[in-house]
Design brief:
The structure holds two protein chains of two kinds. Chain A is an alpha/beta fold. Helices cover 38% and strands 19% of the residues of chain A. Chain A contains 14 helices and 16 strands. In chain A, helix 4 crosses helix 13 and helix 8 packs antiparallel against helix 14. Chain A is globular and about 90 Å long. Chain B has a domain of 67 residues. In chain B, strand 11 and strand 12 form a beta hairpin. In chain B, helix 5 packs antiparallel against helix 6. The chains are: A alpha/beta, B alpha+beta. Chains A and B meet through helix 12 and strand 14 of A and strand 1, strand 2, strand 6, strand 8 and strand 10 of B. The structure holds nicotinamide-adenine-dinucleotide. Chain B: This is FAD:protein FMN transferase. Chain B: It is an enzyme of class 2 (transferase). Chain B: GO terms for molecular function: metal ion binding; transferase activity.
Chain lengths: 420, 277
């Protein structure tokens, strides 16, 4: 891809985001989108210190490099092999650190990006805020609900931006889906069935010098809530967003069902989130069957949206029998034609397999767009509106789900949360 | 016929879609009466919620005895009894135990020598259409086509343009191909098939040969035309589950109205469309 091609595809992408976010009600439902697609004023690039250069961290670095307003100015990781890979994406003289506090003390950055294991997010975020830096931290927010709240509270106390990585909020397909849902195309949404099903252990090979707890932190309960914080957060964010509200309670069940390899996080979960007026989100995640993959089936009385597939479907009413409709038309026209009819009894309740319509707009890296938004927020001192509440509620929903599973009972949505 | 006015009703009943097409009639009353007739048959025969049929099943499943008050249910039992005899036991909504039943016509009492339950299934659709036809005739309708799930069809009177109704049964797998074409007037058609979209219904009961309890899975479609829907249903079911000898006897009695099409040719091969001999 040449620079011109890139500029062009960026422009098309931004146009699509703008188009998608321009619908009725969209400024309330996705206030960040239009803002993120605005032109970026020229000026100094925001110097970013990246903490955590693992899989996600390196993806983030590449996306930061694509932005028009950010630059990677420092790297921090405790694991040298990851750092070595990350250095390939930044100028050779970029300072590197093994302790994030040292990076903060060096004061050669304007903001911090965090992509470390979940249990470290709160400490590192709060350290960076205390040092006076705005923070972009990957989802999920933190290992406990109390820590999620503490992060928001501290950002407010310090008057610093806190933004959490939830890239679907900037995805033009999702934005377009939301716009069409808001326009009433699928009727009132009463149920979302979401799943993230994979068929692999989720266990990473430990490289020389690595340890099980560091490399496979996702499989250790004290570091991560496993499927709930690593996968479900994304989809619970989407669910809250399309439901236009928050759950009232959650019930769930989980097990270590297939991968009995010493992990202590569930490899299978099933939950029901209740929303107002009896609406529900039904969530499942598992690690030994991938047929149903990752999807949110957003269901209203007039249709269904499947944003991962990028499709919208109208409800199929038990239609007129085509052969009989033709017969009527023939009779009206004075034609007597053979009526082809008959077979195994027509049955209305098989899954409908109509192809639906495309929601349009192929892949493009919305992660980049999150960073341009973050960069502008840092420059202007004004947060991108709406994002933090989305992220906070998604993390709370995933952690509350974990608690409901652990305790084996339905849990009400907490009343002591930070308000927005 | 010059008056092409037509009225139509589309609704779901008996677990499927029903369409009633009336010609030469723009009075809504006959349509409403026909629909009501179908819904009352459904109410009497359904086993999907409490009904006269489930009450009877409760009694018969403990080899008991019951008085059948419901007029539609009792009439259905008498018809089934006649059709069970006519098909040599191949049509049997009790899956092989009908011989254990005794029906006392005067006292409307039914008793069984062994526990059994009844599932009127396809018969119910044909029987419901019969009642709809009766209602339409009583109200002077002269031309109509009724369909219940496209597996049960009844035609009343002549086609609106004169003569019989030309109907063709499509091949369940070969799009555009027909198994058979029939011209019918004041008659009913029933199609039973072990393949096709509707055959994939998740909780569809298996086709069982009542005479020996065998489950019939051979890919085939049976087509039967008869004076009533009830008879057409009984015959298409019997043709589908019959062994070759019994099937031949049934077919020989009305070779131009009873057909069995096997679909057993290897996948991709041109399938035989001839009825079995
Ligand atoms: N938004 C998304 O789609 C998405 C996708 C993947 C991961 N993530 C998130 O990104 C985060 C990281 O996930 P990952 O897959 O990159 O994990 P990873 O294990 O590959 O990377 C984590 C990195 O943090 C480093 N690290 C550990 N302790 C540290 C410390 N004290 N100081 C500095 N660095 C330290 C590790 O050495 C490792 O390089 C998680 O929060 C995860 O949920 C988000």
């Amino acid at each position: 891809m040449t620079d011109d091609d890139f500029a062009l595809s960026r422009r098309t992408f931004l146009d699509r985001v703008l188009l998608a976010s321009a619908g009725l009600g969209m400024s309330t439902a996705a206030p960040w989108a239009a803002r993120a697609a605005e032109d970026i004023p020229k000026g100094q690039r925001v110097r970013i210190g990246v903490i955590g250069t693992g899989d996600r961290g390196r993806t983030l670095i590449q996306n930061l490099n694509k932005t028009r307003n950010c630059t990677v100015a420092a790297l921090c990781d405790t694991f040298e092999p990851h750092m070595a890979k990350a250095r390939a994406y930044v100028p050779a003289n970029t300072p590197v650190f093994t302790d994030h506090r040292k990076m903060l003390e060096a004061r050669e950055i304007d903001a911090v990006v965090i992509a470390t294991p979940l249990d470290l997010h709160a400490r590192q975020t709060i350290d960076a805020l205390d040092a006076g830096y705005p923070v972009f931290c990957e989802k999920a927010m933190a290992r406990t609900i109390a820590d999620c709240s503490a992060m928001v509270t501290r950002a407010r106390q310090r008057g610093k931006i806190l933004q959490i990585g939830h890239q679907r909020l900037f995805n033009p397909t999702y934005l377009n889906a939301l716009k069409r849902a808001q326009a009433g195309e699928i009727g009132p949404i009463t149920q979302i069935r979401a799943s993230w099903h994979r068929n692999r252990s989720w266990r990473r090979q430990i490289p020389p010098g690595g340890t099980e707890r560091e490399i496979n932190w996702r499989l250790h309960r004290d570091r991560s809530a496993g499927l709930m914080t690593e996968l479900a957060t994304h989809q619970l964010q989407v669910a809250n967003w399309f439901m236009g509200g928050l759950p009232t309670r959650v019930m769930g069940s989980g097990s270590i069902c297939f991968w009995k390899d010493g992990r202590d996080v569930y490899d299978q979960v099933a939950l029901i989130y209740d929303y107002s007026d009896g609406r529900k989100v039904i969530y499942t995640s598992m690690l030994n069957n991938a047929r149903y993959g990752c999807e949110e089936q957003i269901q209203g009385s007039k249709g269904t949206i499947e944003p991962e597939l990028g499709r919208i479907y109208q409800e199929v009413q038990p239609g007129a029998v085509p052969a009989l409709a033709r017969m009527r038309a023939d009779v009206q026209a004075g034609r007597k034609n053979t009526v082809p009819i008959g077979g195994a009894t027509w049955f209305p309740e098989l899954p409908v397999t109509t192809p639906g319509d495309s929601l349009g707009w192929g892949e493009y890296d919305e992660t980049m767009l999150q960073f341009e938004g973050f960069g502008e927020a840092v420059r202007s001192g004004k947060e991108v509106p709406g994002l933090l509440a989305q992220a906070y509620h998604a993390s709370v929903a995933s952690l509350l789900g974990e608690q409901a599973i652990d305790q084996g009972k339905a849990l009400a949505w907490p009343t002591d949360l930070v308000t927005f | 016929m010059t008056d092409m006015a037509a009225s139509v009703a589309r609704f779901t009943a008996m677990g499927t879609r029903v369409e009633l097409h009336l010609f030469g009639c723009d009075d809504p009353a006959p349509l409403a009466a026909a629909k009501a007739a179908i819904l009352s048959v459904e109410d009497a025969l359904t086993i999907h919620h409490p009904s006269p049929a489930t009450a009877l099943n409760d009694a018969l499943s403990t080899d008991g005895t019951a008085t059948v008050e419901d007029r539609l249910l009792f009439a259905a039992l008498l018809q089934v009894d006649a059709l069970w005899r006519e098909t040599g036991g191949l049509f049997d909504p009790s899956l092989g135990h009908w011989s254990a039943l005794t029906i006392d016509r005067t006292n409307r009492r039914v008793s069984t020598a062994r526990p059994l339950t009844l599932d009127f299934g396809g018969f119910g659709k044909g029987y419901a259409l019969d009642h709809a036809v009766t209602a339409l005739l009583a109200m002077g309708v002269g031309s109509a086509l009724l369909s219940a799930g496209e597996s049960s069809i009844a035609v009343l009177g002549p086609h609106p343009l004169g003569g019989g109704w030309p109907l063709a049964v499509p091949h369940p797998e070969d799009e555009g191909a027909w198994l058979v074409e029939l011209e019918l007037q004041d008659a009913s058609l029933s199609i039973s098939s072990t393949i096709g979209a509707g055959a994939a219904k998740p909780d569809r009961a298996a086709m069982i040969r009542p005479t020996d309890g065998a489950i019939v899975t051979t890919p085939a479609t049976a087509v039967a035309a008869a004076a009533t829907g009830a008879e057409a249903e009984a015959l298409s079911t019997a043709l589908l589950v019959a062994d070759p000898a019994a099937r031949e006897r049934l077919r020989a009695a009305a070779p131009d109205r009873r057909f069995l099409f096997p679909h057993a040719a290897p996948v991709g091969a041109k399938r035989a469309l001839e009825p079995t001999a």
